[in-house]
Amino acid sequence: RTTQAPDEGMGVGLALVRSIAKAHGGTIFGESAGPGQGSRFVLRIPVRPPDSEVPRADTPPPAEAESIAPQHVLLVEDSYLVAETTALLLEQAGHTVQVVNTGEAALERVVADPPDTVLCDLGLPGELSGYDLAQELRSRPETSRIRLVALTGFGQQKDRQRAFAAGFDEFLVKPVSVEVLRSAVHGKSSSQPDS
């Protein structure tokens, strides 16, 4: 999806594993003896009892899942690991995800193929930051109504205020849980600008 080199990421991978473990009734924990000593992660998932009923493939999904329409999401993220993991989480929820790593590429993509939601980092390489991209999209009639979600490592109050002033609908600080990420894409998150 992207051409960036791998980096340290923002903890999204662990959040993904934790969510998967929880969905299967399991747990995960990590420990380390300190810097340079490596880390040890333990994932525990219970074994299904032999006599338990295996869900059938044609079992209808829960009513909540049926009410959530798949979204076309444009993910603007310059971190390779965050982009790949976030895209995977959204694709597993049934969404179509396109990934770009600069504000300029995002603007070009939005104009060519408008998404339902733009999930955007704030600190981007190039001329257009995430703030700039949001302002530009809000200023154009053809893109002004697209849902904009900030997904960032900038978590201070001034960052929130600046993001909402630029036109973002939601503000999420990395790492985020799978539930929060999916809710934000559907407009069900509680992140709102402060009055």
Please characterize this protein's 3D structure.
The chain has 7 helices and 7 strands. The chain has helices at 12-23, 63-66, 80-92, 103-112, 130-139, 157-166, 178-185, and strands at residues 27-31, 40-44, 72-76, 96-100, 117-120, 147-152, 170-173. 34% of the residues lie in helices and 17% in strands. The strands form 2 sheets. It has a 5-stranded parallel β-sheet with strand order 4-3-5-6-7, with helices on both faces. Strands 1-2 form a two-stranded antiparallel sheet. The chain has 195 residues and is an alpha/beta fold. α4 (103-112) packs parallel to α5. A hairpin with an 8-residue loop joins β1 and β2.
Describe this structure in a few short sentences.
By secondary structure, the chain is an alpha/beta fold. The chain has seven helices and seven strands.
* Mean pLDDT, all residues: 80
Quote the distance from N terminus to C terminus: 38 Å
Low-pLDDT sequence parts? 1-10, 56-66
- The helical percent reads 25-40%
Using only C-alpha atoms, the radius of gyration works out to 19 Å
**Which structural class do you get from the secondary structure elements?**
alpha/beta
Count of beta strands = 7
Widest sheet: strand order? Answer: 4-3-5-6-7
| Annotation field: number of helices | 7
What's the shape?
Answer: globular
Order of helices and strands: HEEHEHEHEHEHEH
Strand content: 15-25%
Biggest beta sheet summary: 5 strands, parallel
